[in-house]
Amino acid sequence: MKPIQLSVFSETGRLRQVVVHRPGPEVDLMVPAMMEKLLFDDILYGDEARREHDLFRQVLGKVAEEVLDVQDLFAEALAEEAVQFAFIDDLRRLVNLDLDSCRLLEAMSAKEVARSVIGGVTWDDMPGHTHWQNEFDYRLRPIPNLLFMRDPASVIGDGYSVNSMATWAREREPLILSYVFRHHPRLRHHSDHDRWFDQVTPLVRGEIRAPVSLEGGDILVLSPKVLAVGCSERSSADAIHLLAESLRAHRAEDPGSFDVLLMVLMPKKRSAMHLDTIFTRTSEDECLVYPPYFSEGSRELLNVTAIDLRHPELRMQTRPSLLRVLRDLGVDLRPIPCGGDDFILQQREQWTDGANAFCLAPGVITSYGRNVATAEALDRAGYRVLQARQVLNDPTLDLLDGGKYLIQLEAGELSRARGGPRCMTMPLSRA
């Protein structure tokens, strides 16, 4: 298998390799009592969610060289028995897994382990077990949030971060991604030197007790020199400082690395759980924004702490307005309002991930079709609005012809999971 070279120096460069996860039995096993703790607002109809996700994956494949599923990568990473056993032991330490369940996993194939760790394992094989005797009545509970591949790991430049989740519901995901990066045949050539952030390894080793949280939805690579990270409900200032220190140390060895990390100081509320729920790039010189946080003169205008990575000690300066700070750094972006100019529609469509666009190439983006006012604003900005099926059924359409395109996704079920197209993707490499 050909090695994958990690390379993400922008949000807009043409996709080469990208990781997603098709929703599987983990969404089918979720019951109403589990929703709140597993961070869902509703139960998904799995078959329809899978159909919508399959269309999304096909759209990505119109541009990307490879669209990979994390479950396949995980199974391939566990191909060697020693690696599989090491993972099960780390899982035992992380989630306090009982020995009988460990032995059950040890007897499985790598594919079965991957399916079970993600999709969950019920108690059906246990004689005498009384169903619903526990709040989460699973030998190993499902992890439906893995649909949102953006969060548990991030490729930043030519390295990666194994992120640390803010909630118990997602604690297993970084461990899975850690094994993918360290043991997959196409990725294991990257050394520890290429890992900018990792709290899961010292956690399972017992070296730390309380990891600081950093999630991928807050991490945006805005240029080869500028990285933005939201200090949000899900990502802490302590974690961002650790990431900044790691990047500063790397820059001392490689002056071509990032010059500055922008810590965006966000409100701690669910509607703005990550930076990419209120701000995403759409082209080299445009971005989608949720206007109240980016409009000059707004009482909700976000402050930004710029962390200079070019000096032996981290230097910080706090200023208002992310767009203004970016302009001063040579990243001049014209904002396109999520929800258009109507304040009510802005709120409604930001909630349904209208600001969470994902770039396949410069000016070629995907978004949910239900966000009509956002699509109209993009149309006025010169984007040709297409439905996903139009893109897939028109062999003459060239998305890389230099034009600007908005590809609207069918997402009646996926949108109910509270995450958009960027949330569902983790690029490994961009042109």
Descriptive account of the structure:
This protein is of the alpha/beta class. It is built from 13 helices and 18 strands. It has helices spanning 25-28, 46-61, 70-77, 81-95, 99-106, 110-119, 173-183, 200-204, 237-253, 322-328, 343-351, 372-380, 388-393, and strands spanning 15-20, 66-69, 153-156, 159-162, 195-198, 219-221, 226-231, 260-265, 279-283, 286-289, 303-308, 315-320, 334-337, 358-361, 364-368, 384-387, 405-409, 426-430. A 5-stranded mixed beta sheet has the order 6-7-8-11-12, sandwiched between helices. A 4-stranded mixed beta sheet has the order 14-15-17-16. A 3-stranded mixed beta sheet has the order 2-1-18. It is globular.
> Which percent band covers the strand fraction?
15-25%
Number of domains: 1
Q: Give the termini separation.
A: 20 Å
Radius of gyration: 21 Å
